[in-house]
Write a structure and sequence with these properties.
The complex is a heterodimer of chains A (358) and B (933).
Chain A: E1 16-21, H1 30-39, E2 52-56, E3 72-73, E4 76-77, H2 85-88, H3 96-101, E5 138-142, H4 151-155, E6 161-163, E7 170-172, H5 182-186, E8 192-195, E9 200-203, H6 208-212, H7 218-221, E10 228-232, H8 239-246, E11 251-252, E12 263-266, E13 273-274, E14 280-281, H9 289-296, H10 299-315, H11 321-327
Parallel strand pairs in A: 1-12
Antiparallel strand pairs in A: 1-10, 2-5, 3-4, 6-7, 8-9, 11-12, 13-14
Chain B: H1 16-22, E1 27-31, E2 44-49, E3 52-58, E4 97-99, E5 108-110, H2 113-131, E6 136-140, H3 149-158, E7 161-162, H4 165-169, H5 174-180, E8 196-200, H6 204-207, H7 213-220, E9 224-229, E10 241-244, H8 250-263, H9 269-275, E11 281-283, H10 292-295, E12 305-308, E13 313-316, E14 335-338, E15 344-349, H11 350-358, H12 363-370, H13 374-386, E16 389-392, H14 403-416, H15 438-441, H16 449-469, H17 475-488, H18 498-505, H19 508-511, H20 525-534, E17 552-556, H21 560-563, H22 567-575, E18 581-586, H23 591-594, E19 598-601, E20 610-611, E21 620-624, H24 637-654, E22 659-661, E23 667-669, H25 673-678, H26 685-698, H27 708-714, E24 716-718, H28 728-731, H29 747-751, H30 770-775, E25 794-797, H31 813-816, E26 824-828, H32 829-834, E27 842-846, E28 851-859, E29 866-868, E30 920-926
Helix pairs in contact in B: 2-24, 3-24, 5-14, 8-12, 8-13, 8-14, 12-13, 16-17
The chains are: A alpha+beta (358), B alpha/beta (933).
Chain lengths: 358, 933
Amino acid sequence: MALPAHDEPRPADRQVAWVFDLNKCIGCQTCSVACKSLWAQDEGMEYQWWCSVNTLPGRGHPRDWETMGGGYKDGVPQPGRVPTREEWGGGWDFNYDEVLFSGKGRSVHLQPKGEPPAWGPNWDEDQGAGEFPNAYYFYMPRLCNHCTKPVCAEVCPSGAIYKRPEDGVVLIDETRCSGAQRCIEACPYKKIALNIARNVSQSCIGCFPRLEQGVAPACVRQCPGRAVWFGFLDDVEGPVHRLVNEWQVALPLHAEYGTVPNVFYVPPLGAARLNPDGSLDETAPRIPAEYLRGLFGPGVDQALETLKAEMAKMRDGGTSELMDTLIAYVWKEMFRPFDRDPADITWGDAAPASVPAP
Amino acid sequence: MRSTSAVPKPASRGSEDAYRARWRWDKVGWVSHPNGCFPGQCLLRAYIKDGIPVREEQAGVYETVEPGVPDMNPMGCQKGAAWCHALHAGERVLHPLRRAGERGEGKWERISWDAALTEVADAMLDTVQAEGPDAIMFEPGHGVDAFLMPILRFKSMVGGVFLDANATRNDFNVGMHVTFGKFFVSSVDDYFHSDLTLIWNMNPVYTKIEVYHYIAESRYRGGEIVLIAPDFSPSGVHADYHLPVRPGTDAALGLAMCHVLINEGLYHAGFVKEQTDLPLLVRTDTRRFLRGSDLADGAREDQFYFFDGVSQEVAAAPLATLELGELDPALEGRYRVRLKDGQEVEVTPVFELLKAHVAGYAPEAASAVCGVHPDLIRMIARKAATKKTRLMSGLGAGKHYHGDLMERAMSLVLALTGNWGKKGTGSISWDGGPSSGGALIGAKQRLGFEGTEQVIDAIEMVRDMIKAEDPTMTDEMAVIEMERRATTQGGGMMVPPVFSWYYHGGWRDAWNNRQWGDPAMKRPFDQYFQEALDRGWWQGTERPAKDTPTRVLLQIGGNMLRQFRGGQSVLLEHFWPKLKLAVSIDYRLNTTAAYSDIVLPAAMTYEKWTPGGGSAEIMNYQFSEKVAEPPGEAKGEWEILRLLAAKLEERGKARGLTEYTSAGGAVHSLDGLVDRYTMSGSLVEDKLADELVRDTVALGSIPEGTTLQTMRDKGYVRFTGWGRMPTALSIADAGDLKPDSTMTALQWHVEQKLPFPTLVRRAQFYIDHDWFLEAGEALPVHKEAPLMGGDYPFVITSGHNRWSLHSINITNRLLLETHRGHPFVFMNDGDARARDIADDEEVRVHNDVGSFLVRTRVTPSVRPGQLVIYNGWEPYLFRGWNGQADVEPGMVKWLHLAGGYGHLRWSPVHYQPSQVDRLTRADVSKVEPAKGS
């Protein structure tokens, strides 16, 4: 099927969405490693991490991405810039041979070849902000937001970016991409990167080949923290819809960028704050409200209040549909209907093939 | 409502097909990392393309166990999801290598397997003839994945010394052993039941990635999470409260909580009367327990007494049960007792002593020590008194010099609040899990059911003989005693490393450094060491002996130069020069392999069938399948040791050596060695999986009818019983194993009134050993950490890192990119500013022991005066190859040489001295960046 070349991408018939619970995410990077292993191993993609988890507050990945522009203002695409290779960091090639097999002993040590790195995909891990003992931080996985208004698609000079009608996944047609990098400039989340071997833009594909087989994306299905829900936003019975639309405890990141993202976050509650004498300070949260509003908008206050109120019900021996959803007793219900076991898939053969018995 | 179906596959469009093609595979296999990661045992699947495992994904097939408790899916972590990237990594060893330059220089020549094995066998035989087999040391580690089975089997046949693998790793909870006589753990899903989780000396956000969700989910269930740590560690991100305890003062904090519990009358009197030694009577004249031998000739030394409030008389504490029946032991009061010699003495319950003792830990006073505000101390103590409380206390406390005191104080909080043996309560250590076939294979003489029964019968006979010596013994006590005797009589499997470290390893000077040790030591370390030997406390374990330095070192997946505290500088100076041959059997060239003379290439997990062992934390029996061929000339370790056995036999014959005797008197025969090792050729790696499943069924740990095919179909089988051959490490959990319930450790002590395996058969908080009295540690007490490494302004805390298991994954290229790709030290932002040190600046960390270069990570989450450098960095990741172990003096606490006292005596994997690292003192200095690198 040929793709129409137009500036306004056709809206999707249905939209999938992610909800990440920052009160469950532990920054373990299993999602990012799962994604990298599956999709970003080829030459030219060494530095690409479509899914990355960073410690917030922090400068993130690429470094200071929130200052690089892009997105919409009043419906108009805003100028932005392409992150430099140094701002991305990563893609390190280590000197195993030199250290272990070349007879240089202790005069060399294992490190990336070339200049020592100054940044990487998770450079400011566990650093955070505040002042001891009131330091604060939390973890945030980030991937392409598969925006309802994908500014990347609008600015693409080749018409190579489209929203899949079936699921709303934003895809770059690499056969059409000319490597102009306008999408990279325009994406306010800086989640598109250039394949430096092939000169095409690449980003998270929403694991659409998995979705087509009824399997949840790797970042979702491989999250050991059980911190992410996935599904169609219009599935009113599904947890994504309930968390985003009904309970309104899951919020988009930087909604002010204007692209209407489809990745949502349950904001972090944070630990209690301490007074200078070490006693509890119940007048203010440890994570400054202003900081969270800067990420998630004014709705974050109510979201946190809702979470606290429902948690209090549970502590008092009551029940809460919201808490039951967040607990997620049955793992597969977190990503229905994408709950198929990938190992059951047959690729035209009679049965799934397994390794031989001993 | 269109939620029921997934996404339809449209016709080919754009570059979509290229991605569809990428997500395809030829085969799938079950994989896991059962020894590399214990107790991980997460079930994953490897997806194989063109014969190569290209990626892993968690299987996600675990069924719900307890209704209302989240299932265990999808167990796994980023290490497991990146494991296959190590199969073809730059540090992989593909061929036998012989050192061609200086040790550590990295010059190698490729040699044949035959040449390599000949050299190893000749060195072993030379050593056997010159100095005896005790001069051969095996150092098994986590790098290879056969769960020690072939190594133990091989070693039992050829002799040699195997240092207690738990002591060399210091995965100890000494304080728990002192208190409960054992380590134990509940199943991980039991976390969900906790109403109050005290994360204390643990960092589960890093170390329990695969099961951490139960903690976060318990919070949504209504539980509260409290982080007790010097820094706002990553495990503070989801905590409700953080108690920023001053490093090393956890015992003061715990005792202050006990003060609150006692003074506010919040303690659970019935629980402590039944479960603990707090009602037992102590003589105030000697500070020793009142014993049977005080009262009558011929009475038991280990008979202890209460003052019974009903009869108003001294009554013997039952030995065979915790059940009190009609007795109501007094917790308070002072009483007079007439001894057998007519003398009248005063006695008082331990609780009375404790009450006076904790008076010194009033919250305000303790706050001045531990830095936690008195209000917070009271708040947490009161919560613990009314909530199902769990200590998420990992293996961190035991790595402090006075970690035993911390754990004893923390356990006392649990005791006073009645918090063990019920769902959601207790503490976290580790265990051996239900018995499985792997536990038998080292001892079997022939494959098949009869060979199995033979081993089990022999073990049960020994256990029953031990029980017959004292019918009041529990099975657990008998099993512990059996394992102890196995190692002290006839050569045994493991020996405590303390003697090797002291005589040959080079640590004696450090241990005698008064500044680095406990100021309560009235005598030099040497004197305590000698006294412990003179009193026979370590009889049968003093191996290798003083006059038997190690000559041949066989590292099998181990990485001694990375792992030992105070490691490589001390070892390379003292231990290494005495080695005639250092051999490393591994799949990767780790630092120790880099300093070896011969490196033999081993197969990785995925390249051989690897059985899981037991773990009650996870409770599933599973396998890791062979999903790839070993590359190059790599071989599985069963096969490597078979080849070595054959070579030993051949070379022995050539020099007319057919048998030799170990220092312990065991006779080792070279004649027929291969036949014995392979059970006449029947034991080959590929047959093993089937045998192990059958044996696990025979042991009764998994259902009748389970076969290897069951495992291959389903991936795992949930354990249904503890099995007929429990080890001290599995029987310790003492909880019901049900198909539809979490397992709660210590349940049988509370419900069935099963005695504890301690001297007093109760959770024991008063230790009247003469050394403990000398140390002032009869009751748990706070002691300041000694100035290990010298008087410097910073303390180094550490812990398991997030990015690697031991050092196994630390050089995995993919994982290196999930952090800065180089070692780092977290330091407080104010400290850094004061020293004009920037983030990611290379600094020198140094003390009286040594120094190393490392880059900083500046953060307010670390307290002033604290340096956090996580463990696991391969030394060759540091410039100059020196890392934090090079500033750690590798101290052991002298008191842990104490023995001859109930449960305080050598116990494999349990009680023995072990090196500590936490709170090493150091300073941080700026360095000029080195030019050109």
